[in-house]
Amino acid sequence: MATKTKGRFVDELVDLKAGQISREIFVNEEIYAEEQEQVFTRAWLFIGHESQVPKPGDYFVSCMGEESVILCRGRDGALHVFLNSCRHRGMKVCRYDEGNTPVFTCPYHGWSYATDGKLVGVPFFKDAYHEKLDKSKWGLVEVAQMEVYKGSIWATWDPAAPPFTEYLGDFKMFFDLSLEAWNGTDEPLEVIGGVQKWLIPCNWKFPAENFSGDSYHNISHRSVDMVGIGPSGTGRRDTQERADSRRLQVSFPDRGHQTGIYVLPGGSPTAASYQQSPEVADYFREAEEKRRAIKGEWGRVTGSPGEIFPNTALHPRQPRSIAVWHPRGTHQTEVWRWYFVDAGAPYAVKDFLRQYYIRYSGPGGLTEQDDMENWNYAHSASRGTIARRHPYSYEQGMGSEQTNFELDGLKIPGTVMDLTEAKSSEQNLRNFYKRWAEFMDAPNWNELAGWR
Q1: Does pTM surpass 0.85?
Q2: Regarding the domain with residue range 165-448, which homologous superfamily does it belong to in the CATH classification?
Q3: CATH number for the domain whose boundaries are 45-145
Q4: CB 291 within 8 A of CB 285
Q5: Residue extents of the structural domains in the chain
């Protein structure tokens, strides 16, 4: 049994017994540099989706923390994730976002690499190197582990990290809500419209905590709800479906993942709200009916924003997307957001979702504009000398968490907070910072994998 991690971060800067967290963890330059080593070199990180690299030679340039990486499909069809850096002098060997190529050629000195990472071309190899350079030792740096899970692609630099499915634990059944087709099957998804990317002047942990399950900030989105950008024309989403549901927060303290869920009423699903298009309405109604028939009681569960530790945010249903909060220094975050649709859906459905996603999320989305303003000002207000002396309060719901939670025969794994009466809780946020502090203090995965 692994010993509980204690150190500078656990119980000091992240004091969960008191429900308080120091502002230093957001604005301190030394802490930021430390977490690049302690968190981002050891955790599993989201890279992309199979639908982005369908053919041999296809590539997509992604990120792992501050590192640029290349996701590519080799000529033999195998997937690889490489550090986007020439082994000779470090220049990026790929400066395009995506494409198809037989080789990656460094534009500085011309070293070239095959799509399996092998060094295949060295200018003046005979004359300058006298054919003595061992090319087999100078291929692109490849991640220690990579895994494809239901089309999503993940990687870690740490060979000692547990396999990805073990890293997820029981949270995978909630993650599946983001990856399965609308009808609850394993029919393929595809990324629609490319990847949105934009910068926010805040530390990456502000958006990460928000998507972990901040159920307290709806005042921020009141104007959006009044505009009624949702499919039903009221609120941001299908508000009637959610109003009739039981709302829960679920977290996994030994993994650091958390999410919100809605448990829908039994019986027939709520009538589809996409009435402006019978084709769209019929598609979602039939998909929902099939999902319930396949999933049984679990078919009543629909997802809300969640977070796979450390920096991958989930939005399982409306809009169905994955966002990554890439650190870009202590005071800046680059957001990448992928949007998904059922690959086999009719064009009318895909076009409807594309327009809805644009209205809802991203730099042009009404909801996310509210969030970005909050994170911007919160971060800026945390940088002052006096401000840094005063911790933040994360005390909502302390001591009210439940395990072995069951609702009308539906068993929910993890630690659960029922928001029916409480309305709001910061359980999921505390869970995120608990795991962050453990990563910051733990010397290796032997200590982090306490479930073993």
Answers
A1: yes
A2: Naphthalene 1,2-dioxygenase Alpha Subunit; Chain A, domain 1 (3.90.380.10)
A3: 2.102.10.10
A4: no
A5: 45-145, 165-448
